[in-house]
Design brief:
The protein is mainly alpha-helical. It has one domain. The protein is built from four helices and no strands. Helix 1 runs parallel beside helix 3. The longest helix is centred in the middle third of the chain and has 25 residues. Keywords: Membrane, Transmembrane, Transmembrane helix. It is found in: Membrane. It is a multi-pass membrane protein.
């Protein structure tokens, strides 16, 4: 039984959150005059969900036994947000079909976190 913080989850959570701040600033400043309003909103959605995943992963890192869920959440954030960033920067609309896979991974991660928390209660 793990009672120490999950340092891998803390690392990835911090990287997701920190890069989310950087990408948010990039979008707000560098892309503001380059992208359409709709594309900028899509980019910002990626940033928002990346930040949710980063903060959630950081929180889970502090809880004992939360070793599986952070992996799913992190992978989901990379797929979800990454597909939105790539879609907005390249115009490759087919990437919109990939985005829900990332969302499903994040949802599964948070559900797994709840299941694991319940088992430890």
């Amino acid at each position: 039984m793990t009672t120490t913080p999950n340092t891998n989850a803390a690392l990835w959570g911090a990287l997701l959150a920190g890069s989310g701040v950087a990408l948010g600033a990039f979008g707000a400043h560098a892309l503001k005059n380059t992208l359409s309003t709709e594309a900028l909103a899509t980019f910002e959605t990626g940033v928002r969900y990346q930040m949710y995943a980063g903060l959630g992963t950081l929180a889970l890192a502090a809880l004992p036994g939360q070793t599986r869920a952070p992996t799913l959440i992190g992978a989901g954030a990379v797929v979800f947000s990454g597909s939105l960033y790539t879609l907005t920067l390249t115009g490759q609309k087919w990437l919109g079909a990939v985005t829900p896979i990332g969302g499903a991974l994040m949802i599964a991660g948070f559900v797994l976190a709840a299941v694991d928390a319940r088992r430890r209660a």
